[in-house]
């Protein structure tokens, strides 16, 4: 597989992966799936310094645009106040049929490199429901545990914790 910047042609596939987690999982606290219009607006917001990238099957040419998206990841502003502008938050979602095959590691490695290239000092990961695989993935890429926010979300009739991890850009 390879990693590339997402395009509008990937919007439906990104939404499909995300919306399945909205309706069936706890990786996001969203409760209502994104519409096509909401996904298009989200895509427009995730370019430039806050890119969205996708993992796609390896090919010998560039025909994968719009083809199978195995997973996606993005950088988002950490907070809106100006003093936070050097910090970002990551998001990584891998299609359930492709988990455990290296897509998450490739996505996070590329995302960290993009954050460094764009000059961000800190990357935060907020991992819901003690996602052990996600925590291990982030540790592998230089993130450290900062803390756990206890019972900050409620989904599917149960309280959920959020694990907070951080990676500082090397000096």
List the keywords.
alpha+beta, 32% strand, 7-stranded mixed sheet, 171 residues, 4 helices, 28% helix
Description:
The chain has 171 residues and is of the alpha+beta class. It is built from four helices and seven strands. It has a seven-stranded mixed β-sheet with strand order 1-2-3-4-5-7-6. Helix 1 crosses helix 2 (36-45). It is globular and about 35 Å long.
Average of the residue pLDDT scores: 93
The largest pleated sheet is described as:
7 strands, mixed
Uncertain residue ranges: none
Provide a count of the helices. 4
Helical content band: 25-40%
Number of extended strands: 7
Task: Quote the distance from N terminus to C terminus.
Answer: 31 Å
Tell me the structural class.
alpha+beta
Which overall shape is indicated by the principal axes computed on the Cα atoms?
A: globular
How are the strands of the biggest sheet laid out side by side? 1-2-3-4-5-7-6
Radius of gyration over all CA atoms, rounded: 16 Å
Q: Bin the strand percentage.
A: 25-35%
Order of helices and strands: EHHEEEHEHEE
Secondary structure layout:
Layout: E1 2-5, H1 11-24, H2 36-45, E2 52-56, E3 71-77, E4 87-94, H3 103-117, E5 122-128, H4 132-140, E6 144-155, E7 158-168
Parallel strand pairs: 4-5
Antiparallel strand pairs: 1-2, 2-3, 3-4, 5-7, 6-7
Helix pairs in contact: 1-2
Provide a compact summary of the structure.
The chain is an alpha+beta fold.
């Amino acid at each position: 597989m390879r990693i590339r910047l997402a395009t509008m042609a990937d919007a439906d596939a990104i939404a499909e992966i995300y919306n399945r987690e909205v309706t069936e999982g706890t990786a996001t606290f969203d409760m209502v799936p994104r519409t096509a219009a909401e996904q298009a607006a989200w895509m427009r917001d995730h370019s430039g310094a806050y890119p969205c990238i996708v993992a796609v099957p390896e090919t010998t040419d560039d025909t994968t645009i719009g083809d199978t998206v195995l997973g996606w990841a993005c950088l988002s502003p950490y907070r809106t106040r100006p003093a936070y502008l050097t910090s970002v938050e990551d998001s990584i979602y891998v299609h359930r049929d492709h988990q455990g095959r290296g897509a998450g590691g490739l996505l996070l490695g590329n995302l960290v490199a993009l954050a460094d290239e764009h000059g961000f000092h800190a990357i935060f990961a907020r991992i819901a429901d003690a996602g052990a695989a996600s925590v291990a993935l982030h540790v592998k890429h230089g993130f450290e545990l900062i803390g756990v926010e206890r019972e900050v979300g409620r989904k599917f009739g149960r309280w959920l914790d959020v694990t907070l991890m951080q990676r500082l850009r090397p000096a």
